[in-house]
Structures are given as structure tokens and as C-alpha cells.
């Protein structure tokens, strides 16, 4: 069955870096936008970054200049490079693929904790 499998989360010090990965375990036809969302305890899920099938990127104001999203279409994989992380980046991060004909796919979530 098709699943989005996330990896790369963990504990990191303020100012440090992490790279999150999310790959589909099976083929998905017609993937359009790939994105990363995050959700902190008792907060609403928010869009962190997205990348279209043409390569256009979008970032939340809070992460601009620090995070970078990229994709490898041949591997059905999306990445989130997180640099200069702050305590407020602590959250569960979810990847999301939007396909033209089959809708949304979500990862299981990976915890990112920024603490000294």
C-alpha cells in the first residue's frame, strides 16, 4: 500500500540543522505540490513550506531564510533542510503530497525538538 515515510527528526540544539525526508513507498500518479506542515501542542497545523511541480516554492514568514524545501520527482521524495533552528520550531512535522486525481497523502509525522 502507498505510504509516505518520514525520517530525519530528532533533538537538535538552537542554531543547529536538520534535514527531513519524506518518500512514497509506492507510486503515486500525478503528484502536484509537495509540502511540509507542522503542529505544536495545542496549536493548529500550519504550512511551513511547499514546492510545486514546476519548482515554485513558498515559505511561512517565520522560516524564510532558514529553511529550504526541495524535491526529487524520480524518487517521489521531498526534503526540508532546516538551518538556524529556534525553540519555536519545535513541533511534529508532517509531509503532504497533493495529486491531481487521487487527492492528498500524509506522512505519519516526525518530532523535531529544539532544545539546549
Helix content: under 10%
Sheet having the most strands: 7 strands, mixed
- The rough form would be described as globular
Count up the helices. 0
H-E order: EEEEEEEEEEE
Structural class by SSE content: mainly beta
**Strand residue percentage:** over 45%
Q: Give the number of DSSP strands.
A: 11
Oligomer: single chain
**Terminal residue distance:** 39 Å
Report on the architecture of this protein:
The chain is an all-beta fold and 116 residues long. It contains no helices and eleven strands. The strands form two sheets. Strands 2, 4, 5, 6, 9, 10 and 11 form a seven-stranded mixed beta sheet that branches. The mean pLDDT is 95.
Task: Quickly list its features.
mainly beta, globular, seven-stranded mixed sheet, 116 residues, four-stranded antiparallel sheet
Furnish the topology, listing elements before pairings.
Layout: E1 4-7, E2 10-12, E3 18-24, E4 31-39, E5 46-51, E6 57-59, E7 67-72, E8 77-82, E9 91-99, E10 103-106, E11 110-114
Parallel strand pairs: 2-11
Antiparallel strand pairs: 1-3, 3-8, 4-5, 4-9, 5-6, 7-8, 9-10, 9-11
Overview in brief:
The protein is mainly β and 116 residues long. The protein has strands spanning 4-7, 10-12, 18-24, 31-39, 46-51, 57-59, 67-72, 77-82, 91-99, 103-106, 110-114.
